[in-house]
Amino acid sequence: MGEILPLSLSHVNKFLVLTNRLYMLLHFTALSFLVYYRLCFFFQDPQTREPPLFPWLLVFASEIILSFIWILHQAFRWHPVSRTVFPERLPQDDNLPPLDVFICTADPTKEPTLDVMNTLLSAMALDYPPEKLHLYVSDDGGSPVTLNAMKEAWKFASWWLPFCTRYKIECRCPKAYFSISENEGGDFDGSFEFHADKKMIKEKYEAFEEDIKRVKEDQDNSGDTTGKIGQNHPPIIEVIQENSSCEIEQVKLPFLVYVSREKKPSHPHHFKAGALNAVYRVSAVISNAPYILVLDCDMFCSSPASARQALCFHLNPETSPSLSFVQFPQKYHNISKNDIYDSQHRSAYKVLWQGMDGLMGPVLSGTGFYIKRGSLYGNYKLKDTDLELQQYVGTSNEFIKSLNQKGTADSVTVGRTFPEEETLLLASCNYEIGTKWGKEVGFLYGTVCEDVHTGFILNCNGWNSVLCDPPQPQFLGNSTTNLNDLLVQGTRWFCGLLDIGLSRLCPLIFGPLRMSLLQSLCYAQLTYFPLYCLPLWCLAIVPQLCLLNGIPLYPKVSDPFFFIFLFIPLSALTKHLVEVLSTGGTFRKWINEQRIWMIASITSHLYGCFDALLKKCGLKEASFLPTNKVEDDEQTRLYQMDKYDFRTSNMFLVPMVAVITINISCFIGGIYKVLSVGNWDQMFIQLFLTAYIIVVNYPIIEGLVIRKDVGRIYPSLALLVTSNILATTITCTLYSVLRKA
């Protein structure tokens, strides 16, 4: 017998590991000297030490928090790996396992129905045996628009799928395919038949677009409102049946099901996690495939190869027994060259997730992952009796029966008939009452970041994950291209992350006993990431006000410790720059990431922390609003021009304007103070810090005083905030001068 070739391989970049660990050693040594310098302050004579105690304590506390988060961050850099897959070594199609696909949508007003259907069509066209592919659209809004649009998509799929298969089309999302300037045809590009078929398919797609618009208009004219329907409706399960048209009846299409769980205003619905659990149960009694692809409605399959690539890990005997899911990175088709909002989340997918992949695997990231169905069942095998099982997973006998099926081709019983009453029970509000759903079974509740929470518990239960990041993106989405959506979305994420950090499942306490210490530190960094708001607010105000009043908080240029305080920020900035450049970014991209980190820290991080604390105290309930995915031409134009769109809430604008105004006024006043007193060596670091904040955040200044377009900061707000800040600053300065006099 010949040697069995592996389905996947992992690669450790030894040079990167070596440089990362050398950087950690040098930076940690510098941090130790910084702490020593700060602690020595407390042993000085209170009568002779120059800086006041309070601002010194604030700055020291900020440095401690930044050092703590930095230490947590290094776990990602300890052992990064990359992976290679060999899908050509997979078994023949007849021996491949069945696959379920969940596509989640919630609100057709914010998630355009045509885009949702394009995602559906791209998933139906995956390079996988259609008889083994089962798609479920989870419509949490219960909208007739989505259901009727699916029926239209089914008709168009009977033309689209054969076209993609016949001509080996790579991009199988129709909207994306027909928007490409030169549609791909590969070996068939010169074929008359190909161009004739492409023209015919394009005409049918345009007719499909019109059908979707008509469905939406018919619903609008009927008088129904999505908001009312979305919060109060019965469960709806409908199989989209085959079209009986004789010209397409021979076409094999995947199995397609519409699922809308029951929702009542009086019953907690647990957001996306609740919707996923409902469709998870329904699919178990219909198809029960052993592997599930989860997609957000705006994340279409840009390549048909992802299923086979994921199975290279799931079917690999070396990794499969403990493997829960294969995570693909989220990538976006609407990212500009310099990505001013860091919408592609470069650091997460290019650095952090690769680092976790060398430990126990990346965190579950909401979309674009292939998960093993059995890993979400918890510890059901420990239940000895049917009664214990019913208390664990609910009273459905059909669902309990599905637990013991392996999801092979023989056990998948899809077709025109299915247990309709059972599926309606599984999608009802009351089914989860008295069970472990959302606590130990399925996707977990308790936070709007259900993906991170679920991934953390899977790791705690001994499951691993892998990152699959092939050169060609497998999934492409539509990312936020305006400041408002970015900060609103960030507030929700950071609230959810801190929820986990403040819960009994705190990664620093709950994690180390159940997983590797480094993996626990990775999760801790994610959950405590919102705490950046505390040191950044402090370091954006306290040193500047002390600069204005001639109070030094850092060592003189002639002091040996000066080089420690200079080395630490330069070390961190250089490391960030190297990572950006090594992952395909540019210097401008690095500046943009620095800027958006500062903006998010003083806005969405702060409000996310407030929301998490209020929720912890029982003063506020968790909320989840889908990100608006309707494209705005003006927003897109500004984004492509690298201009910030400041049309956002005052709760986000006021902190930005306040911080930049304080820094400008203190920098000007500080320069005057230094020139008049001559103590530049004492104030150099404070001058450098203030100047850096001003330079990096120049677009805010531009939005305040230069720009005249619709995306500027309105003068009324700018004048109000600036006048208040200047008045306060002048008052504090006069008070300080009079006090010394």
From TrEMBL:
The protein here is known as Cellulose synthase-like protein G2
Q: Which SUPFAM superfamilies match?
A: Nucleotide-diphospho-sugar transferases
Localisation? Endomembrane system
From its record, what is one biological process in GO terms?
cellulose biosynthetic process
Q: Which InterPro entries match?
A: Cellulose_synth, Nucleotide-diphossugar_trans
Q: Which Pfam families match?
A: Cellulose_synt
Which Gene3D superfamilies does the record associate with it? Answer: Spore Coat Polysaccharide Biosynthesis Protein SpsA, Chain A
Q: Where does UDP-alpha-D-glucose bind?
A: 110-111, 140
Which superkingdom?
Eukaryota
| Transmembrane among keywords | yes
Keywords per UniProt: Cell wall biogenesis/degradation, Glycosyltransferase, Membrane, Transferase, Transmembrane, Transmembrane helix
Provide the membrane topology annotation.
Answer: Multi-pass membrane protein
UniProt GO MF annotations: cellulose synthase (UDP-forming) activity
Could you say which residues bind Mn(2+) here? 272, 296
What is the native source organism of this protein? Phaseolus coccineus (Scarlet runner bean)
- Which catalytic residues are annotated? 140, 451
GO cellular component, alphabetical, reads: endomembrane system; membrane
For this UniProt entry, which segments traverse the membrane?
Answer: 22-41, 53-73, 529-548, 560-576, 651-672, 684-705, 717-738
